[in-house]
Amino acid sequence: MSREFIDLPQMVSARGCVRLPGSKSISNRVLLLAALAVGDTEIRDLLLSDDTERMLDALRRLGVGVSALGGNAYRIAGVGGRFPVTEADLFLGNAGTAFRPLTAALALAGGRYTLNGTPRMRERPIGDLVDGLRQLGADIAYLGAAGFPPLAIATPSGSEVRTVRLRGDVSSQFLSGLLMALPLRGAETRVDIIGDLISKPYVEITLAMMARFGVNVPRDGWRCFTVPAGSVYRSPGLLHVEGDASSASYFLALGALGGGPLRVEGVGRDSIQGDVRFADVLADMGAQISHGPNWIEAAAPAGHGRLQGMSLDCNHIPDAAMTLATLAPFADGPTTLNNIASWRVKETDRIAAMATELRKLGVVVDEGDDFIRVWPPEARHALRPAVVDTYDDHRMAMCFSLMTFGAPLRINDPNTVAKTFPDYFKLFTDVTAAVPVLAIDGISASGKGTIATRVADALGWHYLDSGALYRLTALAAERSGVRWDDETGVAAIAEALDVAFVGGAILLAGDAVGDAIRREEISTGASRVAALPAVREALLFRQRAFRRAPGLVADGRDMGSVVFPDSRCKVFLTATAEKRAERRYKQLLKKGIAVNIAALLLDLRERDERDSQRGVAPTQQSADAELLDTTNLTIDIAVDQVLDWVNKVPRNR
Q: Which CATH number fits domain 436-461+550-653: 3.40.250.10, 3.30.1330.30, 3.40.50.300, 1.10.1660.10?
């Protein structure tokens, strides 16, 4: 189980302020236009991510002067429309905002190039853009499946064509890439759109950026665009990149879900990005929204109200609409997102991926070619803990972080956010507060279970007997004939463990096993399986999934050091071996079990030695845990002491 993941607890609130990274869409457009321009351009607040690194690397390989000025600032030495390097092999990863415009620019600039990408990029269509460029004399060959990368590009033949017909219903990046490349021809060229143009706001970004570099494109609505003869890109000298409006959507949604207020800085009412209108959609759903010239702030509906489901045409917010899909389970009534066919040709088939992962949490989803409908569960906390796959798609990872307001989640491959927002999960953690945890750890038979259950009852919190999970794993392995030292076999049992805590009963596959797991041989087995790394990892998320509102008292070894290191309060219990043996002896006698106290004492001492010396997570007090010696304390006194420690910890910890 070496796959990377991040475990996110259930969240209860969100508030604060986030400074957004630069817009990916603007960053890669500006980089290419600056490279094609006459003169040097200083770009500030550039997004530093996988996608922009792909563009920067490609420009360097094409002979463009790229100078890092420190922080998020770069100087690009414009080449005046002709790249110095006329033969190159370029690898552009899964960066559509680099691949599509570079295809168009290189096809019209002259030279011999190959463009390749990741396996997913080789599944993303580019045929409509290639067809449009071929109308202008471009020499482009497919090196794999027709209509898809990789591509071979050669010097274009002369062409007198002045009008290009281009489909607009697959990806707006085709039109954007073509428009940005057309000034390289020098001749007036018109682009006529066939069908409906999707993702119009991204075309507006393209036109605005071209205008900043001195090329204005007259248009007839969304049907016809004309690049004038003699158009030449000229550097504006200095250009600041706006914050990413698509990334703003996650934090605005957090403010609406978690109370807020939560402010994002870097975009505001003056933004040129279409996804800034996500804030208007939130307002229509009932969230409290306020704007400034360079900021937007969101808070939950007034009067403890809930967001309202709605039906929406998402053509104007194609990327931010994904955020609505994971916000929808928390609204009253279904939410339908229409006109999202472009989701299917993004980093993954986002309609299919979104539906699949939402269903893991117990959400009812309808999907079609160009829509998705999400039905909220009857109660927010009816959502199930789940392991979410991200499909190498940064937006899947960020969208599903919102679902932690309903349940704990494990998100696989979280580093995919590096494509556009490398610091996302750090900032997410900074502005959210998780369900509080009291971790009660300690040596065997020190009173953890008794004290933890009493404290949980007093606080009205959930209770986790983590030690029972290891005992249950040992019992299940015994029943299945799997040896306790068979790490692979026991880990497989742990992953599929069917366990429930119902009232005071512990159920394994529906059977009450409270007494069975307390047998001395099962106690030995629990210690042995707990020392197996694969078993501990298999049970890690299972334990964390018990962290549900309003709070959790987690009893067991390593609770504060490994499982819940961010616990609000940590307590480590100890007692002399003699006192612990005496307590265990009395417990067993009450159950009618004859036992020798000397044997119990010997067993406890051997177990203490074994647990303290094990290579994986040995039993020990965390540096930030309160130490409580229960040798001479009654249960009532011990419980009161623990409650006093919990109540002294600030609530926002």
A: 3.40.50.300
Contacts of 305 (CB under 8 A, 6+ apart): 286
Q: Which pLDDT score, from 0 to 100, does residue 147 have? A: 96
Topology of the domain covering 5-20+242-434: UDP-n-acetylglucosamine1-carboxyvinyl-transferase; Chain (3.65.10)
Residue 86 has pLDDT above 50, yes or no: yes
Q: Which of 3, 15, 51 is nearest to 427 (CA)?
A: 15
Question: Catalytic residue at 366?
Answer: no
Name every residue whose Cβ is closer than 8 Å to that of residue 424 and which is 6 or more positions away in sequence. Answer: 247, 250, 397, 398, 401, 417
Catalytic-labelled residue, pool 7, 45, 275, 319:
319
Average pLDDT over the chain, rounded to whole?
91
Give the Cα separation of 120 and 391 in Å (integer): 10
Average pLDDT over residues 99-127: 95
E strand residue ranges, 47-92: 65-70, 73-77, 87-91
Amino acid identity for residue 602 in this structure:
L
Residue spans per domain, the chain: 5-20+242-434, 24-239, 436-461+550-653, 474-536
* pLDDT over 90 at 232, yes or no: yes
Residue 62's closest CA among 31, 93, 41? 31
Task: Pick the closest to residue 470 from 384, 528, 417, 512 (CA basis).
Answer: 528
